[in-house]
Amino acid sequence: MEQNRASGILLHPTSLPGPDGMGDLGPEAFRWVDFLHRSGCQFWQILPLGPTGYADSPYQCFSAFAGNPYLISATTLLDQGLLKKSDLADRPEFPIERVDYGPVINWKIVLLHRAFQNFTAGAQSPIHKEFDAFKDAQRGWLAPYATFMAIKDQQGGGPWSDWPEAFRKREPKMMSKFLKENITEIEFQSFQQFIFFRQWSALRDYAHKKGIRIIGDIPIFVAYDSADVWVNKELFYLDEEDLPKVVAGVPPDYFSTTGQLWGNPLYKWEVHQADGYQWWLERMRAVLNQVDIVRLDHFRGFEAYWEVPFGNETAVEGRWVKGPGEDFLRVVKEKLGDLPIIAEDLGVITEPVKMMRDTFNLPGMKILQFAFASDPDDDFLPHNYPVNCVAYTGTHDNNTSRGWYEAAPERERDFCRRYLARSGQDIAWSLIRALWGSVAAWVLAPMQDFLSLGDWARMNYPGTASGNWSWRMRPDAINEALVTRLHETNLLYGRLPQHEKDDIRESIMEDMQGQVLPH
């Protein structure tokens, strides 16, 4: 990782304002990039972009390769002629500070069907040729994903383990028959992916022009109810009925006294290793075509992971099992070159995990909210940071900084105030300033902290299945005062882009010309 000091903001696109009930890839996303640029930030960090399934979690997606069609902007489709004004005439009223996923998804599906009908009814044009080229280039993952989603819709949306055996086992005769009889539905699924990646590519290109790099997220595990598992069963521990034998989680920790039972199927790493990790290499390439840097979630799971027998209600009963370790990262580096990876190394981290991280010079993560529960030697305190790390006030799994402070034990609050030499009145910004002033090369905070929001704006409660991922930023949240304050913080702590630093130095030199320096 380069050592240039830089800063950024964590905000998933679903949290952006917008007219259709959740944030999308339309005009508000471009305005967001403008805000990052004007405030002197250089990173935009997001959560996984995949099509969400269980509990609307971006960490439980129907595909590790596909995009979330609910992020498609209807406004952009209107501007491009794929929707008509009349198609939006029945737009419902949606709350502006929360995503109510049920009504939003129903509305988005209606809009996407209308756009697809308009697309298919239109005369052949460059966009139709573009669609054909997209399908051809992405065929490896797109064809099975589109088929998977078409079957899922036909089967009422249930998990593939509940499908008729012929579909579950992907029997050739049944699959051939389904493909012939459902061409339009499969094409609709491909169309959604085409439009998603078309809009995302335009947004990412715009971010690059503004000097903004995007930090994405690769969950180590994939959802059981996904095209990935349905198509690649040999890569996972499944029984004869195609159910998981063992599932992923973490033992009891800071977040939960019963651990976290994620429920994802576990990899047969020896099978992955035997073919040179081909599936993983394809996954890494796909994500790096979407973003510039990836946060490798649950990094320690590559060294050893927590295996829980399928059917357990908590993650308390399990065991540590060795993962592929350095061999995996060595192959990835050999095939893909330098690793633009942030190692999510939170929780109890063993020496072998640290060695794996440091062998490949990967930056780890520091969370400032964790810093005040012990003493001045705590690794999460800014004066103990290494340069090669990415430091956060908190992540999507934490409370907001204000929410954390208001709920923290008085001993932690007292240590925090003494450490920061602040009263605690403006705690989120006090934490931001301490973080920005650290030696950590890169620093980020969730947007909720820049807005000093309380615990009601929290994004995720680890270990809970509902009530997550729904916070949205108000349309009037970003103003000139916020731009100025953040830009000033980036300036004071040397985190502006290099060209702005150069301009400031040049201005200072011009001001100094002709001055007589004191002896």
Characterise the protein shown here.
- By secondary structure, this protein is of the alpha/beta class.
- The chain has a domain at 232-362.
- The chain is built from 19 helices and twelve strands.
- The strands form two sheets. It has an eight-stranded parallel beta sheet. Strands 5-4-7-8 form a four-stranded antiparallel beta sheet, with no helix packed on it.
- The relative contact order is 0.13.
- The model has no long low-confidence stretch (mean pLDDT 95).
Keywords:
eight-stranded parallel β-sheet; 12 strands; four-stranded antiparallel β-sheet; alpha/beta; 519 residues
Give the structural class: alpha/beta
The percent range for helix content is: 40-55%
Strand order in space, largest sheet? 9-6-3-2-1-12-11-10
Radius of gyration: 24 Å
Average predicted confidence as pLDDT = 95
Give the termini separation: 43 Å
Low-confidence stretches: none
Strand content: 5-15%
Main beta sheet: strand number and arrangement? 8 strands, parallel
Please tally the β strands and state the result: 12
Shape: globular
In DSSP terms, counting alpha (H) and pi (I) runs of 4 or more, how many helices? 19
Draw up the topology in text.
Elements: E1 6-10, H1 27-38, E2 43-45, H2 74-79, H3 101-121, H4 126-137, H5 139-154, H6 165-168, H7 172-181, H8 183-209, E3 213-218, H9 227-231, E4 246-250, E5 260-265, H10 269-274, H11 278-288, E6 293-296, E7 304-309, E8 319-322, H12 326-336, E9 341-343, H13 351-359, E10 364-367, E11 389-392, H14 401-407, H15 410-420, H16 427-436, E12 442-446, H17 447-450, H18 480-492, H19 498-512
Parallel strand pairs: 1-2, 1-12, 2-3, 3-6, 6-9, 10-11, 11-12
Antiparallel strand pairs: 4-5, 4-7, 7-8
